[in-house]
Amino acid sequence: MPAPSFSITLEEHASFPSLRREGPFYDAIWKIFPEAKTAAQDHSSGRILDLDNNHVSYQIISHLPGMNSDDPDDYRKANDEMADAIKRYTTRIGGFAALPMALPDKAAAELERVVKEHGFLGALIESHLADGTHYDAERFWPVFETAERLDVPIYIHPAPYPDTFVKERYSGNYPAGVTLGLSTGAWGWHEDVGLHVLKLFSAGLFHRFPNLKIIIGHMGEMLPMMIDRVQNLRIFSPKGQSSFNDVWDRNIWVTSSGIFSVRTLEMLLKITKKDRVMYSVDTPFNRNIEGWNYLQELAEKSSLSKEELDDFAFGNAKKLFKLDFALKKF
């Protein structure tokens, strides 16, 4: 079976001047991924060439995680900078807004502004504030209300933990690089987003906003493995509210970002509706060539039909984001 002729990716990070920060976390990250810093800052011909070389028809970019600011104007400026970059390549690049979640009313207003003024496709928000606070408290819910009303998704993405928490929770009898890995992409980030989704469910967010659309990455942030366990615990069956299974089927979309595994995708598809699972790469920390190789491997080795593989690669995302233009074909 041939690999798909089109693809859409949507956990793809970029860096813009107004939300560009340096610090210990990114000092360590850039040492591990030295080429990623340059790639994140390329919003023009180099990015498009990379898309062309690796069979990406359309890429939805978002601001790098962990670039927090106390000034909501920084988010506005950075989103405007992103919009200016997108204007040159409107059929190849779309955008997710960054939002000042510490100021929920301003975050909701910024989401409305960028969707209406710039045609952004939603927002990618960090899974917690700089101090580790999740968004189950109702003071954060204006953002979700706005997203539901505008009918755009919110992508909840992992974010760096406070240094003290990383040291207490993840350091041990191994090098500092292992601590970094355990607290981020090997375990901690995914554990955190999965927990966050359960907290939002438990707080009644999806009961209040039944049409809210949430995206999570990395093959479901550990939740697919635990869904049946959660479903069978009585504490997660509030009276008069949907079950977690119902919320998973109705409100949650999942991307493959950064996990190029045939067996993991097939496990996910046993738990999740096929129209809710979407391809992503997680650039610049993974490369688009890895994603293209993965699509070819799926075509050769997976149990997906041609139609199912096409839906995973681009069809489900095209439907979710209501993309009404012709995608570049490879």
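(ticket continues) Second input and output from the same batch:
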Amino acid sequence: MADGAPQPKVTGDLNQLTVEDLYDKDKYDLSTMEQQDVMQLLQTQPGGLTSTEVAKRAEKFGLNKLATKEVNPFLQFLGFMWNPLSWVMEAAAIVAIALSNGENRPPDYPDFIGIVLLLLANSIIGFMEERQAG
């Protein structure tokens, strides 16, 4: 450090530090601390950590990885048909096919097919957007 540089104000031992301590903003608010204070607290340098130190910290704190939950794509697709708007459209499709054939008229197939195609289009678009979002 240069003579004119401010000295870090943080003292602490990473071996005593827990993950909970780092998340407790009353103890350590990393977002408002000076960079050199954060680096001293975390015992690192601008060049990064050594492989040995990385392995030691990964063992203590765990990997920096989010847990992923695998979802069945077919069930995810069907999930887009399980909402109030879809229920109304499904009811309209049933009405179009079952109840509109009074007076010996044939079922209203064009309306039924149109409603089913709209439901499928809505589900496909929602499914594709959800899959692309990760």
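Agent notes: The radius of gyration is 30 Å. Confidence is low (pLDDT under 50) at residues 1-8. Closing as not reproducible unless the customer responds.
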